[in-house]
Amino acid sequence: MTSFIQKIAFLSFLIVGLNSCSKEVKIDILGFDEQIVIDGSIETGRPAIIFLSNTRDIYAPTDINSYLSGFISGATVIVSNGTITDTLIEICTNNLPPELDSIAAEYFGVPIEQLVDLNLCGYVSTGIIGEVGKTYTLKVIHSNKTYTSSTKIENPKVLDNLFWKEQVNLPGYGFSWAKITDSPVMGDAYRWEVKNLSDLFYSKPFQPFTDDRFYNGKTFEFSVENPMSFKDQTIENQYKGYYKLGDTIVVKFSKLGKKEYQFFEKKYNQIYSGGNPFATPTNIPTNIEGGALGIWAGFSPWYDTLICVP
């Protein structure tokens, strides 16, 4: 009995002690500060395309109407290649010129007939087309503020080889493979995209961007999964991620600058860790000056067709 009373007394003392050490913690959450987001790109053989939007409060609605209302109209957007300076025109997807239908569908990853209903608006260059080796400056003027940036379309990187290899213990299915010889200059960065021969727009694998920090100056082979298969409900789970024997695909392998890569690398890391309470908080860098978020990126693509046969 004495032992039981001692235990009760000890527990009572412990509870009182813990309560006496507790302290109310107050956390000041910073208020929402709206910023402009610039999402712009230019690649070889294509016009500059810029989308402007505002950041949204974390507690704001997430429906499609709220998303569309975030786009900015009426800004002045100027792109220059050092020789030609072009003020971009504002175009919406419900009134696209025929020559921009496929570009817009590929950019958004949405069929043309659905773009009309979404009515997304952006700014398109009519006087400048991307060229290899040129640097493009960007100026955005909105609400009496000016934002600037520059990007370069690098020389495209040609893969040494592109081939399909059958997966061990999975006859008739395999990954796409490529062989690359990286230059000895540190800082090369690339984007991988792919589509079926009959597709309108390209798809990206789980991690479409890479740089040469681990393979600078080396020659090596690497494999890439089939991103289209994950959206195809007719494919059995065991075959998802693979190309089947006889598939024909188009690979778009683009080179981009170091700062541009750092933006996309951090962006995708944040996307894939979203909702994970143990993930390291990530601040996504930007190459835009003046207080805006986002990216202005130049891409130089190289294309090749792969028939999936041994």
| Shape summary | globular
DSSP helix fraction: 10-25%
In whole angstroms, the N-to-C terminal distance is 82 Å
- What's the count of strands? 16
Largest sheet: 8 strands, mixed
The CATH top-level class label of the largest domain:
Mainly Beta
CATH architecture of the largest domain: Sandwich
Examine the coordinates and then state which fold CATH places here, giving the name of the CATH topology of the largest domain.
Immunoglobulin-like
Number of helices: 5
Explain the overall architecture.
- A hairpin with a 6-residue loop joins β9 and β10 (173-181).
- The protein is built from five helices and 16 strands.
- The strands form three sheets. Strands 5-6-2-1-16-15-11-12 form an eight-stranded mixed β-sheet, covered by helices on one side.
- It has 310 residues and is an alpha+beta fold.
Features:
Immunoglobulin-like, four-stranded antiparallel β-sheet, 16 strands, alpha+beta, eight-stranded mixed β-sheet, 310 residues
What does the secondary structure layout of this molecule look like, with pairings?
Blueprint: H1 2-21, E1 36-43, E2 47-54, H2 64-69, E3 76-80, E4 85-87, E5 89-92, H3 101-108, H4 112-118, E6 121-129, E7 135-142, E8 145-152, E9 161-166, E10 173-181, E11 189-196, E12 209-211, E13 219-224, E14 243-244, E15 248-256, H5 258-273, E16 293-307
Parallel strand pairs: 1-16
Antiparallel strand pairs: 1-2, 2-6, 3-4, 3-7, 5-6, 7-8, 9-10, 10-13, 10-14, 11-12, 11-15, 15-16
